[in-house]
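note to self: dont lose this again. the chain is below, predicted strucutre after it. 634 aa total, dont forget to put it in the shared folder this time
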Amino acid sequence: MTATDNLIALLKKHWGYDKFRGSQEDIITAVINNKDVLALLPTGGGKSLCYQLPAVAQDGIAIVISPLIALIQDQVSSLKAKGIKALGLTGKMSRNEVIQSLDNAAFGGYKLLYLSPERLQQEIVLDRLAELNISLIAIDEAHCISQWGHDFRPAYLQCSKIRDIHPEVPIIALTATATSRVISEIQSGLALRTEYVYKDSFHRPNLGYTVLYTENKKRALYDAINDHNGSNIVYVRLRRSAEKIKDALIQKGITAHAYHGGLSSLERKAALTSWMKGEVTIMVATTAFGMGIDKSDVRAVIHYEIPESIESYFQESGRAGRDGLAAKAIMIVGPNDESQSRRQFLSYLPDLDMLKKVYNNLVNHFQIAYGEGKGITYPFHFGTFCIAYDLEPRMCFKALEIFDQQGIFALSQNFRHRSMVQFTSSKEQLWSYLESHPDIRNILEMIIRSYGGVFDAMTYINIASLTKKGAGSETAIRKVLNQLATDQIAKVEFQDHDVEVTFLEPREDERSILRRRDPIEKNRSVKIENLEHMLKYIDNQNQCRSAQLLAYFGEEYDSHCGLCDVCVSKDPLRKPEKVSVKRDIVEVLGSTPLSSDQLAKTIQVDKDLLIECLQELLEDEFIRVTLSNQYELK
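---
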């Protein structure tokens, strides 16, 4: 049996495939031949197979660096189901459990060991890795090592430590999104020894990209969901947006779950399981959702808010249509979204003066003496800290993230002790309760207005934020919540702190920041540049959407996808049809204003074509939108 025959046999045995896709075979062969490899494969392009199969085919154990604990757990479970021995070092393991797992890796016949990059900061882990018979080192989501990447993660800089321990072992770095600048930083950051770079086309011929401009974003969202039956993902930026949209969809009779960092691990797992099984069709999620989730039948990925970079947009959109069938990537853009994005992304990027201010407030808050503090963990309540020092919360948290990125301290959000509330009474019982307790009405109404999901699940309540909105003092709010729990109106869990920082170096005041001035300013410029590229993509209605995206990643695409909104609008075969539809729209609206749904039923035309014609008529000022979201002649 030839080497290729042996690889095909393993592919069939464990993964059920008869042949490789794209560059998979070349990548796997290079790795087995002890070559360092950089693999650039699109989302759904089979990246994990490129290190899993070589691990199975060779003696020893493969080390896999992966950014998310949930992703590690999913991969380990999937490999076990295939009959491949794998284990992972997850975040909640004690020191003894870590040592036991590493012993198992050494003597238990395991083929793959997964760990997060943060584990490489632990001496016990590095010592045990030095003793293992390692067949290869895989760095998944390798763009995280680059400060020019959209998801820079400082701990990824530790990945080079494995090369120091095992200089003879090949490294395979994998990513689905990387510009030429990011590729260069991956190669240098990992000290890749060869120029084996494999890049499959990022083009997704079954995926149609659309930027949908609308005055009514909610209506556009409902229409997009109704037009794409099956599983869909709706991406938003904020947790509260995810909850609000989920509630709005449920009220419309659409099955939906929310997925974000404010939910407990059990709640996230339940939501994911329900969506994966098809029990609910829509997952409304923040960008934390989707990485490593193997669901091939997503028919549409809808961005309800503008992403912060083309890299993140491309990766998230790529989760649609992984089964090869027709799918859509839709971005819904309202009149003020672009200016709002600039405000939200750019106005909250702290400059050096703001970083100095936050740092000085932190060390004073914790009463750390100059030259002290290294290695000590300080828990605190973030909202209270912001109020005490008059800091804008989003700006302050961005500053904390930058300190974490630059290795000044390690930041963790402690979600085990949060202020959580769920109303267990019915709404009718609650209103009756309010009538008999009018003195707490203001606080309760403020909670209900601010947190839409509070009747459905345990919901994170930001007491400091409620105080700022005028609900009352923190003491008063906590007293009311205690009363609700006592009277069995709600379940309540209080938090003592929600953020922890572990100082990685002693207090040095401005020196800590000024020493890192260049990378901090570089990071700021990257954020600004990324958003400008994203907005430029949205505004470019002359070039095929796929061509724009591919050009951003350095790939030439001279054709037209034929699926995106730009290509469809330029299709000469559609021009006579559009003229006819526009004529019908003007004729029907001559007698009465109508909504887009009513127009579609009256004219009996494809909804996408109708929306396109309505947009052009609005731009040409033939029609306008009424306050009741109907169209009428101008």
